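pipeline: protein-struct stage 2 | run 1193 | GTPase Der
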Amino acid sequence: MSRLATIAIVGRPNVGKSTLFNRLVGKRLALVDDQPGVTRDRREGDGHLLGLDFRIVDTAGFEDYDAATLPGRMRVQTEKAVREADAALFMIDGRAGVTPLDEEIARWLRSEDTPIILVVNKAEGKQGENGLMESYSLGFDNPIALSAEHGEGIVDLFDALRPIVDGFDAAAFEAVPPRGSLGEDGGDEEDEDAPLGPLKLAIVGRPNAGKSTLINRMIGEDRLITGPEAGITRDSIRVDWQWEKDGEVHEIQLFDTAGMRKRAKVVEKLEKLSVADALHAVDFAEVVVLLLDATKGLESQDLHIADRVLQEGRALIVALNKWDVAEDPSSLFNGVRGALEDGLSQVKGVPVLSISGATGKGIDTLVRVAFEQRAIWTNRVSTAKLNRWFENAVENNPPPAPGGKRIKLRYITQARTRPPTFVVFGTRTDSLPGSYTRYLVNGMRKELGFQGVPVRLNFRNSRNPYDE
């Protein structure tokens, strides 16, 4: 199968790599802030430039630290991105000129086999011109003067990329989810008639619950940066994965997200952006795994996250991670399940699983259950079957008659899936108590197989032609 050329963007922190990445993908996917070191994990997207299509990779700022430190682990990811790429854009800051770290990065890049294109960002104005002249000392071909923020120099970048990209045939890659569904404009409406594609599975939870470690274990490589420090992940990173089971290959899009702390503790702008990006990933996902730290148990913040997932209408799975080091696991499991039944009373039957991202225990079960929950989440019940159940439910437990005035429920229809949404038509439905709504929803879960997913039930009054 043919593929797209892969282009990596490298450079020291805060030279504008993520700004260029966002411009090339045409969406604000990567977090951008004035402070250095915002990007940590590699982020990939589908780049487009004046008719050229390619895979673009944003990387963390290159810093000279020991590999055991967090900046050192970030540098290792950057080095892997360059070695796996078909070409790399080496970006420097034209206003700052060539720095000793730029020279060190240049020496490293010259030792690699990957073709390098030197890009001088922030090159507008006289300050930028001085940096452009200095860049010739780095030993690469003619540098490209660019302004990633304002779009200047894009034609020159096109000319430099064209010989590389033209060597590859365009392939049918699914585009990275737009910011409208994984971003700032809110979630797009799903086309429920479209065939099911790859399972969109987001991993959420509090900081240091082991989300990145779990995804690395799933895909079998150190794709995401992990470590003892809390809050390493900032961007929501998509990783494409193929899960093989019983001789069949299943496509999955995994989303690693930033840890979500209590809102009162989130005061820094960057952490607010990271949490917002995690919530956008929830909007885009089909199934969301709430990862709990088994050594800490269930906390109120976990219930807040779960409630947010269910409010967005996503299928939810609760997974107790670090099960291999949990104390009194049986008591812990039963306690968490009981607390979830009380705290998430609006959705009964949410799956609770025990796993270990470190050892891989329970991962196959987790993925299997995720596919099962998506099947429930996308299930459509025939109108005939639905109304047979509805008639029996109303007959067995007729709606009340507040004030002596009868409420008549006529029929029900399924308006949509993803999540399952139903509309009941009748008279005086606005007087129906919440307890009767719960009775109907619980009956649907039990009789129609909607256990563990959010079900939305709306009511409509039949129009009386003599009202006027």
